[in-house]
Task: structure prediction
Amino acid sequence: MRVALASVDNPYIIKSGGKHVHLYLLEKGLQYNGVYVDTYYYVPSKIAFITKIFKRFRNKYYQFKSAIDKMIKFYEKINFNSYEIVNAHDVISAVGIKGNIILTLHGYFARETINYGNYNEKEKTKIFDYAMEIEKLALKKAKAIIKVDSRLRDYVINSFNIPENRIFVIYNSIDTENFKPINEQKKKELRMRKGIPPDKCVILIPRRYVKKNGVVFAAKALRLMDDNDLLMIFIGRGPERENIINELGSDKRAIVLDAVPHEQIVEYYQLADIILVPSVISDDIEEATSLSMLEGMACGKVVICSNIGGMREVVKNGQTGILVPQKSPEDIAKAIRDIKRNSELRVEIGYNARKYVEENHGYISHAKKFIQIYKYFINH
Result:
């Protein structure tokens, strides 16, 4: 079987975020299962850097539309006829590719475009409308659509009237050989190397600083707790960084770091005691099968996450993790205290979480699910 994977994002350049990790692991998993794979990631033209100089003189809608149009034209020029399957991983590449495609989507393109940007109301309307047009074109074109949770499936059915029999749900995967538990001695050594006190209860928030990730609510929760043995480590980048820092104030129990390459982030999971994923519903966007959640679980940690989206489809509350109401610093603070004070429960949940991820989210078995869909559409 010959398969082409296409995306406007290159996981070998951008080594963080759920979509990028998914692409890298899918390629690796398909090859492990004997599939021939080529990848087609968007490469900006040589004049792209010149265009950037003039961006400040353009309105944001024009910037957005121009960037999307260039990406679509990039894919229009590629001949995919030698492949049995072309699997696009975003709506932009899907619109540009000629012929039949299988489309894998990791989120809500139009909604996330607005949520991640800094636009005025007029810009929001124009950008959202154009993004929805692109999203609609891609979804109507695809022979099959793979979504990473059932809520995203329902979104496609209800918002675009796509027949249910064209949509499949395959939850995200991770590399369980890389993301794995370590013993207490190695944990202490890791903390020493990174300058993290060995006696602190470390809460890791490995999230992009955007509205939908709700990171500011972790900062609010810290302010509700007077425990001196806590240390919150924030890792990410994005427009909400300033709000997070302002909320934390001068609290010495928090460290706000920039994004860390994906191959290095595993050590932060391993040195932590609790992983916090405080996502919120923002601009009608709900968290899918959070990669941060799965990676934390794979490392045998207690993951506290919001009771929304794909996270509540994965986590069994009190067994494989802890679910809390969204936008509730009080509930986050209570969950942290409860887990911090109950070491037996912490160990039990961590063990169950690791076992669950090993059995359900390994990247090799994940790739086999894609192969089954590929084969079905080759034969039909």
Remarks:
- Residues 2-173+362-379 form a domain with the Rossmann fold fold (CATH 3.40.50.2000).
- DSSP finds 16 helices and twelve strands in the chain.
- The chain has two domains: 2-173+362-379, 184-360.
